[in-house]
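Handoff note, outgoing to incoming analyst
You'll be picking up this chain. Sequence as last confirmed:
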Amino acid sequence: MEIRLGTTQTAGMANDSCRYRQGYFCAPVQGGIFVNILAQIFQVLFVLFFAPLLKGIMDRFKARGMRRVGPPILQPYRNLYKWFHKELLWNTETTAIRSIAPVVYFSAPLIVALLIPVLTTFPLPLAFMADMLGGGMILGAAGLVLLLASADTGSPFTSIAVSRVRFIGTLAEPLTLAALFTAAAVGGATIPYVVNQVFGGAALLTPSHGLLIVAWILLILAEAGRLPVDNPDSSQELSLIDPNRTFEATGTDLALFEWGGWMKFTVLGIILVNVLATPWGLAGSLAPTAIGLAALATAAKLTVLGMVVVLVELSFAKLRLLRIAEYLSVSVAVAALAALAIAIS
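Most recent structure output, in case you need it:
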């Protein structure tokens, strides 16, 4: 059986044959539907369990860069275990949104992991549920649910976080759309697997491709709340942005919020390393050896990306709140230049 993805097709269209090669990306479904589902599950599990490890590697590397010993690499797993075993406390005045927000925020990156090439170069059965824009909307909806839950607590610190996140979002959201549409224009499609194949087969790094990579890195820094936008390691509540959103969360809710944030960073990083920047090293078949090597390659690329992000954090001070708008304006301009480079090429 073969699956056909079109540059103009909507997600979900498939055919038993691949009659028209030009303009379409054809990939065989190997080993039967059961093996494909197992590969899809392993892909989700990779994101689920590697995200805390990536967080631990980045924290350790950052501490070493600051001439400190730092926490153990496995500390995020210990934190999750501690949070899951702590008492869950709720404000009695909160509404139902407070109870569903942790599950929604935790689940969104896992759903996006079904749509992107985490380990394979060819699409798996559920990769047709949505395209890149749909994946961005899923992550955006999860962030909105978290903001609603934060505002629902009534805490002054979460209220500060909500107002600041919405201020940043006025430019971060256009940046996300610009980066996604530019990637679709460069790759000639909105399906991540098609864009992956286009960039993987490119002989040289074009100006539009290079600008797109820079814009996506700037987007990751903004969406993940890293420096120079925010400092997730600070303990000063009045200066925090992203961490203040979960200021009132405890126990299982805090674990799901934190784990979901780590997975969101991992998913955005996978889009960068496996779709836009370095779309190689992925499995071309469902053989266990190929899948294992692809997992190691993706883990290595994400680790390098995490170290680059840490080096940026160590090299820049946190911007003042109003200066963040200038940073995001530059990011939008870079994405616009990438789109302009496509138009004139």
